[in-house]
Each structure stands twice: as structure tokens, then as C-alpha cells.
């Protein structure tokens, strides 16, 4: 069984701990815990992990958030991974900070990275793990908010949330989306 896990974010040190990079952070935490390394490849940083009989490919697109679909489509084709075995990890303004929700399908909800993926896959029916970042920003300041680092209070809570998100990724690959939804959705 092959899986493709795409953590969304923006490359560059100025984006490292921003809310928009929640997807990158989840994959970096998993890599540190399970000792696999990312290498720079075409359109993404890529890692492979064999876990419980599964071959799991991880990507952190280098296309910047708004063109994430280009890397996802490329690696789905490259590794011949079915849409239902592709999980996209993305920051979500509509969920309170720290809330994690996995679903087998759903709209982009105004998220430009998801909008691009939807366009390039031609469907909204692909699994997503939404990482709640909250929406504590003044009207019209959404871009500033998502590109700003997590607060000190949020940073203190992040390790536990990132661990849970990592558990959700491994559950998705081993138990499937339905069991993962039942066991983890808040």
C-alpha cells in the first residue's frame, strides 16, 4: 500500500514557525520522531518511510502555498498513489487553535492552497487533515495573521498538537480514514 502525505506551507526561514506552515511542522515532527530525512527533489522536499507494511511518501511542496497542487499532482503520478491514499495537511482559520479534523473530502473553504489542489486534481474528494489556527485577527488582516509566527502561548502547546496530528497521519495510513475520524476528530 502506497500513501502520499503532503504538508502544506511556504519555504524559507521567514515562514518557519508561521501559522500557514502547520503542515510542514507536522511532517518535520514526524521525521524527527521516526528518523527519516527530507531531501530536495523536483517541486518539493521529499521523504520516504516504510511503516507497518505501508510505503509512505511525504512531501513539503517548494511551490509556495498557492501552487501546492502542482507538487501534489506530480508526486501522485510519480509514485502512482490513489487520490484516497493522499492526505493533505493544511492550516485552518475556521477551527480554533489546536483543533484537528480529518475528512475524506470537502471544499477549499477559501484556502488558496486547497483551491489550487482542487483545480489540479479536478475534485474536492481527497482527504484533508485540517490544523486549527483560529481566527483571532482584525477584519481584512487574514494574510498578516497566517504569515505571522505562532504566539509564545501557542508555541508552548504545539508539541502535543503536532504529536496528535502525527498520530492521525499514521492512523490514516494503517487504519484508514473512517477509523481515524472516529478516533481523533474533535
TrEMBL record:
Residues carrying the site annotation Discriminates between blocked and unblocked aminoacyl-tRNA: 10
Signal peptide: none
InterPro entries referenced in this protein's UniProt entry, alphabetically: Pept_tRNA_hydro, Pept_tRNA_hydro_CS, Pept_tRNA_hydro_sf
Site, as annotated: Stabilizes the basic form of H active site to accept a proton: 91
Active site as annotated: 20 (proton acceptor)
Keywords, comma-separated and alphabetical: Cytoplasm, Hydrolase, RNA-binding, tRNA-binding
Cell compartment(s), UniProt: Cytoplasm
Catalytic activity: an N-acyl-L-alpha-aminoacyl-tRNA + H2O = an N-acyl-L-amino acid + a tRNA + H(+)
Pfam families hit by this protein: Pept_tRNA_hydro
Binding site for tRNA: 15, 64, 66, 112
EC numbers: 3.1.1.29
Enzyme class: hydrolase
Family: Belongs to the PTH family.
Function: Catalyzes the release of premature peptidyl moieties from peptidyl-tRNA molecules trapped in stalled 50S ribosomal subunits, and thus maintains levels of free tRNAs and 50S ribosomes.
Subunit structure: Monomer.
PANTHER family per the UniProt record, alphabetical: PEPTIDYL-TRNA HYDROLASE
Name of this chain's protein: Peptidyl-tRNA hydrolase
Source organism: Dyadobacter fermentans
Lineage summary: Bacteria, Pseudomonadati, Bacteroidota, Cytophagia, Cytophagales
